[in-house]
């Protein structure tokens, strides 16, 4: 009886999680779906094909992916040294530094966006991809630092010392020892940065000024139009990259875990 209850609850949870996706699929690939019909009367790919043929869709997806990738890489580069210090060292004012890094997650995004908009207008970064990338780094960097610092807190520096003692250069030690040991956390940090940047709407709108159009901007614009089929199609396209990134991350972590088990 207990097993049946657990299975039933798990099934209900899965249905709740997958229900929005199924609804998007139904609207994106159907037409003439009116109350009280429980299912669409006619299935078609016309709406999906029409949205894909729109140059704005492809352009917004490409721009959003490019920005998210740049943000992920830059967040990793900027967050790595800070995370190493915060994870490995204990020093006076450490908690203050943590608080400063996490301030962007506490301050309302609108306040950050308006302040950045005024600043970037003065220095010429408003309405540009570099400006949007820099704006996206602000909310992604705290999560990158937190993820990597947690891994560094369990990191054993003796592996690096042994590599240096055996004749490896600092660069070789970094790439062949440090990065290999930190690989799972690096993958997770990139995942967080990508997802946050890809789904960012407010900062893109304020800093992009209507000149940088990503898929969330296009999706919100379509939502105000009230066409369910177009909204559902754009939503599916919006979901696709995060799902692919999560699947790739899971496979990478699983492969890394298998390699470690084979070594031992």
| Total tally of structural domains | 1
Largest beta-sheet characterization: 2 strands, antiparallel
CATH topology: MetI-like fold
CATH superfamily grouping: MetI-like
How big a fraction of the residues is strand? under 5%
Helical content, roughly? over 70%
Please provide the ordered H/E string of secondary-structure elements.
HEEHHHHHHHHHH
Helix count equals: 11
The global form is globular
Task: State the CATH architecture.
Answer: Orthogonal Bundle
Top CATH class:
Mainly Alpha
Q: How many extended strands?
A: 2
Distance between the termini: 40 Å
Gyration radius, in Å = 23 Å
Arrangement of strands in the largest sheet = 1-2
Mean pLDDT: 84
Classification by helices and strands: mainly alpha
Please write out the topology:
Elements: H1 2-28, E1 30-31, E2 42-43, H2 46-53, H3 55-88, H4 94-106, H5 109-123, H6 129-152, H7 158-165, H8 170-198, H9 202-208, H10 215-225, H11 228-263
Helix pairs in contact: 1-11, 3-6, 3-8, 4-6, 5-9, 6-8, 6-9, 7-8, 8-11, 10-11
């Amino acid at each position: 009886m207990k097993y049946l209850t657990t299975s039933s609850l798990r099934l209900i949870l899965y249905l709740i999680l997958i229900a929005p996706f199924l609804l998007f699929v139904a609207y994106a690939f159907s037409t003439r779906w009116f109350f009280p019909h429980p299912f669409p009367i006619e299935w078609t790919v016309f709406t999906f094909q029409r949205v894909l043929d729109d140059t704005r869709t492809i352009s917004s997806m490409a721009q959003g992916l490019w920005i998210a990738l740049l943000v992920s890489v830059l967040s990793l580069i900027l967050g790595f040294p800070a995370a190493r210090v915060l994870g490995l060292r204990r020093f006076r004012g450490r908690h203050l530094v943590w608080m400063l890094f996490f301030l962007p997650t506490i301050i309302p995004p609108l306040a950050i966006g308006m302040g950045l908009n005024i600043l970037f207008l003065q220095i010429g970064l408003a309405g540009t991809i570099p400006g949007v990338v820099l704006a996206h780094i602000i909310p992604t960097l705290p999560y990158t630092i937190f993820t990597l610092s947690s891994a560094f807190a369990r990191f054993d520096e003796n592996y690096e010392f042994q590599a240096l003692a055996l004749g490896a250069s600092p660069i070789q030690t970094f790439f062949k020892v440090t990065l290999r040991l930190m690989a799972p956390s690096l993958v997770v940090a990139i995942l967080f940065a990508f997802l946050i940047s890809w789904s960012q709407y407010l900062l893109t709108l304020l800093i992009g000024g209507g000149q940088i159009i990503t898929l969330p901007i296009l999706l919100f614009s379509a939502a105000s139009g009230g066409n369910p089929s177009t909204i559902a199609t754009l939503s599916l396209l919006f979901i696709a990259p995060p799902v692919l990134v999560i699947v790739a991350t899971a496979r990478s972590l699983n492969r890394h875990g298998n390699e470690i088990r084979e070594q031992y």
